[in-house]
């Protein structure tokens, strides 16, 4: 097969302790999935159906790379999250079978141009410019679920320049991962290589150039990036 120009390289994540890499298909993100974060964003944390937005796969920042501060924004926020990586997929996946499709887990940052997201909300427009911009998804290497299991509790945190900014527990998720996978699979055909960013705890705040972001999820791993 020939192409009119060279196709872009496959976007992939490392796998801890392995040379093989995890090829990424799509990135799905669930919104307001911790009660305290919902409250700090001015929303009722009652258990309503989950909602999702997406980031392009090539928005990933991998292998400890830096996060370039984006243009057209002066209010970029950090959001630390547990990331689930799917090794298989399908449609209408039963909740009881959802975890069978999870290959492994990592730690990610849903970087957000909050000012552009806020403008989009006011105008009833999509969030793409606020959420799906270049380099908006720093992510750690993955750990296989076969090695660490499927975490349902454990500390999740983020430090900025050594100061604690975000802290929560996976047990505080409003929608569990099996529920997210089951619901998401009614909206899209999930595939091997899909990532699901599962939501962020309270404490989101702005970053500036030079900030060092270090965070993690207990039992899963850590992530470090520098804002440049």
UniProtKB/TrEMBL annotation:
Domain of life assignment: Bacteria
InterPro entries referenced in this protein's UniProt entry, alphabetically: Fumarylacetoacetase-like_C (IPR011234), Fumarylacetoacetase_C_sf (IPR036663)
A family per Pfam: FAA_hydrolase
Sequence ranges assigned to domain Fumarylacetoacetase-like C-terminal in this UniProt record: 27-228
Keywords in alphabetical order: Hydrolase, Metal-binding
Nucleotidyltransferase in keyword set: no
Residue intervals passing through the bilayer: none
SUPFAM superfamilies the record matches: FAH
Any one GO MF annotation of this record: metal ion binding
Name this protein carries in UniProt: Fumarylacetoacetate hydrolase family protein
Organism: Enterovirga aerilata
